[in-house]
Amino acid sequence: MHTGRVRGVRREQGRWRIVTGDGSVLSAVHLVDATGRAARLVRRLGATPIRSDHLVAARAVLADRAGETGALDDYARRIAAVHAEYLTAQAARYRREQRWDTPFWRRRR
To answer: Could you tell me whether strands 25-28 and 15-20 are parallel, antiparallel, or unpaired per DSSP bridges?
Structure first.
């Protein structure tokens, strides 16, 4: 793994060619943008960032490709648990909503 500033990135013969701040040239099959919400590398490449658990998803895919059985199933279980937690919190918020007594809110209580 290499960390540091990226001066340039481009796709060459099915691989990523990365030029770092110190002038080193790296070559990689996979590229992970770990700049967080800024998604600097993704934006520089003109891609659309996916903001939901992207590093964990990338790890699961890479682990699966490397032959780690169950990596994708573990990831799917994690996403299902996060989604269930979200639905529970959403239902609680909707039940507390008392500002409008309308069919919209009644259906969500």
So the answer is: antiparallel
The number of C-alpha atoms within 13 Å of 56 and in the hemisphere containing its C-beta is 11
Q: What are 16's two structure tokens?
A: 């990523």
**Coil, strand, or helix at residue 27?**
strand
Over 60: is that where the pLDDT of 94 sits? yes
Torsion 1-28-17-37 (CA) sign? negative
pTM: 0.43
Contacts of 35 (CB under 8 A, 6+ apart): 41, 42
Contacts of 48 (CB under 8 A, 6+ apart): 42
DSSP state of 95: H
